[in-house]
Design goal:
Dna Ligase, domain 1; D-amino Acid Aminotransferase, Chain A, domain 1; binds ligand MV4; five-stranded parallel β-sheet; Rossmann fold; about 35% helix; 16 helices; 3 domains; eight-stranded antiparallel β-sheet; alpha+beta
């Protein structure tokens, strides 16, 4: 086991990794920007090093400064958390070449899955279902032929895109030329790469992802699935749950087996997530693979009673995965609400500032992963997540009731937060019935709630 681990991250995930390392008997090293001097992660770690000014590019993305801190602290391994450098193959390579074990998959897996086109191609080769799509559009004729073949509506996507940027729906051939031109110019502007391709549009798909864990000896298991369909219009997840509600058991079995097959096909090691779109007809398609621990990992942990982050560290330290697939048993249902410093009434505009009183929920079946405290400063430089509230109970219905109770107990004064929108989501009948999909929030919650003025014709 490592003697000392550096956590190259901040906020709640830095605390999460520090806690896992401490339970494994490792010493911990935090790195912090000047804006995080009074944050909890430098306080909780055994050592802490300032790696630069508040701007991410000059601190949490500053590879030379992070490596310097690792050298000075003489650590054995580096955990990247999520976001920042967690899927940066070059960073993983630099850690290894400096003698620090990168706590994550191999550099090749990061690189392969980081390029969406190569990932999709590799999955198709492994007989993992992918969304029917064209190659990069070289001519209008190509596009017209492809669309006639798969049928409208279609979705135009940017090759360099991801996260929903540069996508265009085209409902009929007459609109195809304009759609291609618009998507391509938007992609050129956003990514300096105007290449686009076309896919069959899945109408109202669900976003279902499968947690996998592989050791460095080729053993791969899954730890069930998570439904992440409740997303903001910006494609950022807001609420996640495990297991996915109303999922046909045969579809679940096929989905989980496909995820393990996909991970094995790329010799995957450490924690990873296979993302799929599940269509209304029960067919599912590979979307992308995340080669990091994810924000929503706690819903899997509480349902399966395992510590994914400790397994990440153990696997990186060369341990065999001692959990066999047959031993993996789901217990109950868990829901996670992301509490962000955002104003849902104003397109989720980020809020920043000094917090007033912070009071978190507790009691049976509640877990709170958070780094904030009464009087803490919420800096404007980083993503806006303040806390994750996780409610676990025997059934989904009970988990919904428990989460409602937990949100009612939550107090975070000083900034706008997403607590109210979560209370609205949990009170919406289609959510309670488990009938959500990727555009559900916009269509069923954000639209339905319009101030009177707007309703009068605004
Ligand atoms: C799709 C789709 C429907 N049909 N592809 C959005 C971001 C990018 N990762 C892929 N996304 C989608 N691709 C086809 N052929 C619907 C979406 C989509 C979506 C996917 C996952 C999670 C949230 C989403 C929100 C809107 C659209």
């Amino acid at each position: 086991m490592f003697a000392k681990v550096l956590i190259a991250n901040r906020g709640e995930i830095a605390l999460r990794v520090i806690r896992a390392c401490r339970e494994l008997g490792c010493k911990t090293v935090a790195v912090f920007s000047e804006a995080d001097r009074h944050s909890l992660h430098p306080r909780m770690a055994d050592e802490a090093y300032c790696i630069g000014p508040p701007q991410s590019a000059r601190s949490y993305l500053n590879i030379p400064n992070i490596i310097s801190a690792a050298e000075i602290a003489n650590v054995d391994a580096i955990h990247p958390g999520y976001g920042f450098l967690s899927e940066n193959a070059q960073f993983a390579e630099i850690c290894a070449s400096h003698g620090f074990k990168f706590i994550g998959p191999g550099v090749d897996s990061i690189g392969l899955m980081g390029d969406k086109a190569s990932a999709k191609h590799r999955m198709a080769e492994a007989n993992v279902p992918v969304i029917p799509g064209s190659d990069v559009v070289e001519s209008e004729g190509d596009a017209i032929r492809f669309c006639r073949d798969v049928g409208y509506p279609v979705l135009i996507k940017a090759t360099a895109g991801g996260g929903g940027k540069g996508m265009r729906i085209v409902g009929r051939e007459a609109d195809l030329t304009a759609g291609l031109a618009a998507a391509s110019s938007e992609a050129q502007a956003a990514f300096n790469d105007g290449r686009v391709y076309v896919e069959k549009l899945l109408v109202h798909p669900r976003h279902i992802e499968v947690q996998v864990l592989g050791d460095e000896f080729g053993h791969v298991i899954h730890l069930g699935e998570r439904d992440c369909s409740v997303q903001k219009p910006s494609h950022q997840k807001l609420l996640e749950e495990a297991p996915a509600p109303n999922l046909d058991p045969a579809v679940r079995a096929e989905l989980l087996a496909t995820a393990v097959k996909a991970a094995r096909a790329v010799d995957y090691a450490n924690a990873g997530t296979l993302e799929f779109l599940l269509n209304e007809d029960g067919k599912f398609y590979f979307l992308e693979m995340n080669t990091r621990i994810q924000v929503e990992h706690p819903v899997t942990e509480v349902v399966f009673g395992i510590d994914l982050v400790k397994w990440q560290v153990r696997i990186a330290a060369g341990e065999r995965l001692s959990v066999r697939q047959e031993e993996v048993q789901a217990n109950g249902h868990a829901i996670e609400c992301r509490i962000n410093a955002e104003d849902a009434e104003n397109s989720f505009r980020p809020a920043a500032g000094k917090l007033g009183s912070v009071l978190f929920p507790g009691g049976p079946g509640i877990r709170v992963d958070s780094h904030i405290y009464t009087g803490a400063e919420v800096p404007p430089y980083y993503d806006s997540m303040l806390a994750k509230i996780v409610a676990h109970d025997r059934t989904r219905g009970d988990a919904v009731l428990r989460m409602r109770r937990a949100l009612a107990e939550t107090e975070i004064l000083g900034v706008a937060t997403t607590v109210p929108i979560h209370e609205r989501i949990l009170a919406t009948s289609s959510f309670v019935e488990g009938r959500t999909f990727v555009t559900w929030l916009r269509e069923h919650v954000l639209q339905s709630h319009r101030p009177v003025g707007a309703a009068l014709g605004g």
